[in-house]
Amino acid sequence: MRAVVIHAEKDLRVEEVTPGEPGPQQVRVRIEAGGICGSDLHYYLHGGFGAIRVREPMILGHEIAGHVESVGSEVTRVKPGDRVAVNPSRACGHCRYCQMGLQQHCTEMLFYGSAMRFPHVQGGFRELLVVEERQAVKVADHVTAAEAAFAEPLAVCLHAVKRAGPLLGKRVLVTGSGPIGILTIVAAKAAGAAEIVVTDVVDGPLPTAVKLGATTAINLMAEPDRLKAEYGAEKGAFDVLFEASGNQHALTGAFDVLRPGGVIVQIGIGGSFTLPMNVLVAKEFDLRGSFRFHEEFDWAVAMIGSKTIDLSPLLTATIPVERAVEAFDLAADKSKAMKVQLAFG
Known about the structure:
The protein has 345 residues and is α/β, with parallel strands linked by helices. It has 2 domains: 182 residues, Medium-chain alcohol dehydrogenases, catalytic domain (Quinone Oxidoreductase, Chain A, domain 1), CATH 3.90.180; 133 residues, NAD(P)-binding Rossmann-like Domain (Rossmann fold), CATH 3.40.50. The protein contains 11 helices and 20 strands. Helix 4 packs across helix 5. The mean pLDDT is 96.
């Protein structure tokens, strides 16, 4: 079968690999759609991020969906032919953090397409993938594989919204309108936020952000003073800030418009930041990280299947797997692409 394998920076190949057979409690999924994520792009463009580097050939991909081809003898949740979204997170279930209900921090985590461990955890950009039964989450009959492949990034954003606490009636600011920023808007709207303002430094993605739930969109490059002018009175208007760009200036630039006691949920990963601690202390901000997800994956699948959201505006292009390099180059060009998916089979 074909798989998308990263060997080093800018060395991405479509190679033949051997498919596995499912064990008694496993499922073999024929992958149909795979979304290219920011972490996939880091491996492609830079060979990794920070201290995490590709040290051996690794199959990329963790935003994946397809249909069940075969199941092990003890599998009861799905059957051959079922369309499923694949949860790329395999927590051990036994370590200290799994027992605390913090499975996303599992000390033995196996997360698809990740070089955080060595040997690396091989990913899901392949035509056939054997997964544990619990990872194959059945989707509604009307949901396409392309839609189901959005379950993973939506789960990331549902977890971020959970980290923020109740949003009903709250005023929310989202900095960064890439796929994670816009899916955070979707999640915040579903949680009852009364107002959602999104900012970016380019116009391109902002109309999509508005289409999917933002009440106001601001290009800070074109209108650098607008955010503070409209939302900076009385020490700030927003109750919650979701920082989705991974940019230090986006985070600190929002401090003037976040009210005292406001909650900051940092989703974007941008390396080391320098923060004005005097402001953070004086305004008593509550700074919270948000990392991956656990039960939120099933929530995302249910939300996509409910027909209450339409994520199709996020999908820029679907490109056959044999043209994977072209797909990655397009996904890396943020002036042209929001979300690019690979089509398998």
